[in-house]
Amino acid sequence: MTENKPKPFFITLLRHGESVGNVESRWQGQAEFPLTDRGRAQALALAERWKNENIKFDHVISSPLVRAKETAEIIASALDLQIEFEPLWLERDNGEFAGLTAHEVRQNFTHPPFTTPYDPVGSDGEGDWELFLRAGQALHSLLKREPARYLIVSHGGLLNQIMHAVVGVAPQANNAGTRFRFSNTAFAQLMYYPYQHRWAIDKLNDHAHWLDAE
Fold first, then answer.
1. For this structure, is 91 an active site residue?
2. Looking at the DSSP assignment, which residues form a beta bridge with residue 67?
3. CA-closest candidate to residue 163, choices 155, 90, 70, 22
């Protein structure tokens, strides 16, 4: 008699569509910026692609920030799904940088020649290590659920640290090391086999529905 193995998790990690903050080159963090018309079109194009490809999800979990919320709502409406909003999937708290343009950050703050993963961002925001720990918490919380097909709608900074947690790479000093690209409405597809503690990364930065997604 063979033992029944637990089912795998199917996890799709999706970055939100283009936002006003993206267009204006702002450090968005947890500041609120809505999607642009282009961002809404990106989300609609992705929803149409997934309908055509017969992609199914059992659960949609989204950051409550408006740019992720709008993206999730557009896709969930098209695919007839409900959304759960979870603050663990918020973008990095970037402290005093939140909402400022890149130029304003350069002009108004001193920038040390060397930083560690433990240093805060924006004076009092989440440093890389703190964000990495929250990403691990978000991932752990997801994997305590039943295996199913999950769509996660979140942000580039947090999703980067999720990928670091998956591949077992801790944050490096001075912004060095590996980065995972997530263009607007680009997604990664992962499978997790709990009975082996094995990850499979099937797709990364897939934005075939919108080729110039940056």
1. yes
2. none
3. 155
